[in-house]
Amino acid sequence: MKKGNVFYVVEYKGQNAPGLFWSREPIFTIKDLRNKLSVIEDWKNPNIDELVIRKYKALQEIQVRDGYIGPMLETSKGSRDFGKVYKGGGHQYESLQRFVRDDVFIPSLDASDKGKKIERIEDFIKTLK
Fold first, then answer.
1. Fewer CB in 10 Å around end: N or C, the chain?
2. Is 23 helix (H, G, I), strand (E, B) or coil?
3. CA distance 60 to 87
4. Best CA proximity match to 7, nearest among 28, 22, 29
C-alpha cells in the first residue's frame, strides 16, 4: 500500500489498534460485513463489543496482500447463520505487519508520527448495525 492511501477497518469499539484485514471501501452494516467481506461471527461478534468502522491513512508504504474475497462458510457455533455460505466479492488488504500502538501505529490524537506507518483518522467512527 502506498503512502497517503486511505483504508477502512471494522473493529471492536474498545480496540486500540487496527487488525490485519482492511478494505478500500467502508462497510456500514453487519450484513455487508458478513456478505461482502465473508467475516464469520467468531471473527467479529457484536455481542463481545460494538463493531465500528474506522478510517486510517498510510504514513509510509506498507506491505500488504491485496485481492478479492471468496465465499466463506459460517461455522460459528450459536450463530443464527450457522451453515450459511457468505458470498464475498468485496476487496480486502491483508497487512503483513501487526500494528501495536507503541510500535508503528498512532491514533490521531498523538502528535508524533516519526517512524510510524499508519494513523487512525479518529473522527470517522460509525457503529455497525
1. C
2. strand
3. 33
4. 22
Relative to beta strand 6-12, strand 85-86 is unpaired
Per-residue pLDDT in tens (0 to 9) along the chain, 129 residues: 999 999 999 999 988 778 899 999 999 999 999 999 999 999 999 999 999 999 998 888 889 999 999 999 999 999 999 999 999 999 999 998 776 655 566 656 555 666 677 878 866 788 999
DSSP state of 84: P
Q: Which of 39, 103, 77, 102 is nearest to 10 (CA)?
A: 39
Cell numbers for 11, please give them.
473493529
Contact 51, 128 (CB under 8 A): yes
CA atoms within 13 A on the CB side of 83: 1
Residue 81 CB-half CA count within 13 A:
17
Residues in the chain: 129
Whether residue 90 contacts residue 68, with contact meaning beta carbons closer than 8 Å, is answered with yes
- Give the whole-angstrom CA distance, residue 98 versus residue 95: 7
